[in-house]
Amino acid sequence: MTVVWDLRNQKPLTSFSDSNRRKCSVLQWNPDMSTQLIVASDDDSSPSLRVWDVRKTISPVREFVGHSKGVIAMSWCPYDSSFLLTCSKDNRTICWDTVSGEIISELPASANWNFDLHWYRKIPGVIAASSFDGKIGIYNLEFSGIYAAGDAVGAPARQRAPVPKWLKCSTGASFGFGGKLVSFHPVAPTQGAQASTSEVHVHNLVIEQSLVSRSAEFEDAILNGDKSSLRALCEKKSQESLSDEERETWGFLMIMFEDGDFVRTKLLAHLGFEPPQAPPASSPDELSQTLADTLNLDHATITDYADAQFLTDNGDDFFNNPQPSEASLAEDLVSTNGQQTEQEMSGDVVPSDPSIDKSIQHALVVGDYKGAVNQCLSANRIADALVIAHAGGSALWESTRNHYLKNSISPYLKVVSAMVGNDLMSFVSTWPLSSWKETLALLCTFAQKEEWHVLCDTLASRLLNIGDTLAATLCYICAGNIDKAVEIWSRTLKSEDGGKIYVDLLQDLMEKTITLALATGHKRFSSSLSKLVENYAELLASQGLLKTAMEYLKLLGSDEHSNELAILRDRIACSILSFFPYLCLTFRCCLHVNEVFIYLNLVY
User: Fold this and answer.
1) Whole-number pLDDT of residue 335
2) Per DSSP, what are the bridge partners of residue 184?
3) Fewest CB within 10 angstroms: 227, 315, 489, 529, which?
4) Geometric angle at alpha carbon 448, from 447 and 453, rounded to 5°
5) Has residue 313 been placed in a domain?
6) Is 217 contained in some domain?
7) Of 395, 375, 393, which Cα lies nearest the Cα of 385?
């Protein structure tokens, strides 16, 4: 029999006993329910534990069955009354769930029985057990097994243990993937509820507002892919740019969206060179009128004067005063001009070596044009050599012309040499970089379509080697080399250029990168560029822009460049498919609110 005493009045308050009237070996009061206690016996024939309520002692409230021999000791957890430790003569130490009556954990068996158990007061979940072999074992309840001794290896696991009170938090929050914030807090229990309830909420969390707004604006601008809208976007970005470099870059990007060969015409104008305008075709009547106006000829006056002269009879004057005829006047004029010209030539012409003149003349007489040209070149008579070579055929003319251009020191003749010799690569490789705009203008005018990209890329490489990054970037834009252009742009990410933070610099970089990719039709990215797009997509996903982030990842194609990219792609895809239907839901749960919260944090 078990008797409960009233110590103030020093008399029994109540008593109870079970049906088989077994003796009580150990007793523990419930730390949360002042009217309940648990009683156990060391009798091997009745090893169960029974929970009694002193207000109703007719029968026990609950009975725990698990030991095969008598119970020696027990200890109720002071932090959570749902945990109860017992040890018995069957060498088992069991942790019970007093709410469900199930075994939730079992300590490892020792060489001899445990006869005393205690919970550590300072660290919840730590247990001390004393055994008859003279040893004290220290255990942590969190690392103990969930199978009872004697269970088969393939036996199903017992019911999951409830979360201990010392691990529960009344309020908490955690960040999730896709710009989500999961939070939970307690709510007032409903009438008749035995346990407290909590609510779990999932919130959209946006930290970088400027990134979200700029990304949405840029996405709307490039949505249709129309060239006119893209040119308008580049023009707007150029006007909004704070630096000359950005303004020039967006200006070149705008030109890249022009139609066909009109790109080069616009590029020439942007570089400050105006192409020649074809003169308008004039009609024959307009030409005649222009000639008449220029000469100021009055045909009517001349005709009238001639008629009046011959209608008048002035024969006496004619014979008495004879005048020189027009023919004799013309002869005298030619004779005078000839003498004057001969005097002028004799005064200006430098005397030449008669032997050289004779040898050149001899070569011409026999038709040896090549020999005559060589004689002229040896005597440094370049003009004579060119004239004679023109009469000697196209091959002799080209060789003589190339010899002249090669030895010429005039800068503009170097341009002529590149044009007539169709050797633009040598010109690009040797022309001074201080005149890179003239070089690019020459390429716009004379470069063939198939060599345009190579020539621009060569010029950009030379400019990059001397540190002129702006000019190199512009030439890389013309060449359509998106990887090199992005490599130069990426250097601004390492420093806060113009007082901008990393997020704004990355947004600027991606806008220029995607714009250049649309202008060139570039569809294959290098590993470094793919990593940059991956970082940008991850940043967008962290602000909740999952669909936009996935669109950027689609630009990289199906070939995975890294495991991180594959993981990011899968996380975004799973979040888009499974998370959006639950954005506005409120989760209600009882007792296991932390388990639901941890589950949400792991999944999302």
Assistant:
1) 54
2) 172, 200
3) 315
4) 80
5) no
6) no
7) 375
Instruction: Answer whether 86's CB lies under 8 Å from 129's CB.
Output: no
Among 212-221, 407-416, 563-572, the least confident range: 407-416
* The predicted structure's pLDDT at residue 248: 92
Q: Distance between CA 528 and CA 484 in Å, rounded?
A: 10
Would residue 267 count as lying in a domain?
A: no
pLDDT digits (tens, 9 = 90+) for 413-455: 666 666 665 678 887 888 888 889 988 988 888 888 888 999 9
Contact (Cβ atoms closer than 8 angstroms) between residue 174 and residue 601? yes
Is pLDDT at 53 greater than 60 in this prediction? Answer: yes
In a domain, 490, yes or no: no
Residue 130, strand partner residues: 116, 136
Amino acid at 232: A
Structure tokens at 443: 């390429």
CA–CA gap between residue 91 and residue 70 (Å, rounded):
10
Confidence tier at 470 by pLDDT (50, 70, 90): very high
The answer, yes or no, to whether residue 379 has pLDDT greater than 50, is yes
- For the chain, give the percent of residues with pLDDT over 90: 9
CB atoms within 10 A of CB 424: 22
Query: In this predicted model, what pLDDT tens digit does every residue of 267-322 receive, in sequence order?
Result: 888 888 887 665 555 555 554 565 455 545 454 444 454 455 555 555 555 555 56
Place of tokens 């990593």: 531
Cα distances from 339 to residues 105, 319, 327, 334, 344, in angstroms, run 134, 33, 19, 9, 9
Question: Any idea how long the chain is?
Answer: 604
CATH code assigned at 48 = 2.130.10.10
DSSP β-bridge partners for residue 129: 117, 137
Total number of domains in the chain = 1
DSSP result, 404-462:
HHHH---HHHHHHHHHHHT-HHHHHHHS-GGGHHHHHHHHHHH--HHHHHHHHHHHHHH
Residue 50 domain boundaries: 2-167
DSSP3 helix / strand / coil % (the chain, rounded to 5): 50, 15, 35
Inform me whether the pLDDT recorded for 463 exceeds 90: yes
